[in-house]
Amino acid sequence: MKTAVCYYSRHHGNTLKVLQAMAAEGSMDLIDVTTRQAVRLEDYDCIGFASGIYAFDFQKSVVEFARQYLPQGKPVFFVYTYGGAKGRCAKAVKAVAAEKGCRVLGEFSCRGFDTFGPFKLVGGIAKGHPNARDLEKARLFYRNLRVTLKSFIVK
Fold this sequence. Notes:
The chain has 155 residues and is α/β, with parallel strands linked by helices. Helix content is 34%, strand content 23%. The chain has one domain (3-154): Flavodoxin domain (Rossmann fold, 3-Layer(aba) Sandwich), CATH 3.40.50.360.
């Protein structure tokens, strides 16, 4: 099974750390939405979208990338890191998936070190995250997602 994750990870690289832990569990192509302009996502069995959270939602370039490149009906999943409260942070990218008739297989999130805006004044929040426990949970999520995807493809 071929999986691609289209992501944006800046500042402290929290989201990329999580994705690298997941990729260690099996085949996963990581596509940085800021460097790749044209991709063929239809060649993948499953597509993930990942971002740190900015103003309570995915980074806008990830949402626009999904809007432009996500094929109709592909299974998808979402990964995000956040500094403060979890909330409903994947709402914009979930809306794109719904518009394209894509089945959402799951969502993984964890805290990530955050020094954006006023958090910089206090030395940041969620220091030390993602930590080893967060990364193990990310690996477990991806292992389980692969099992779910296998059963989805077989049906």
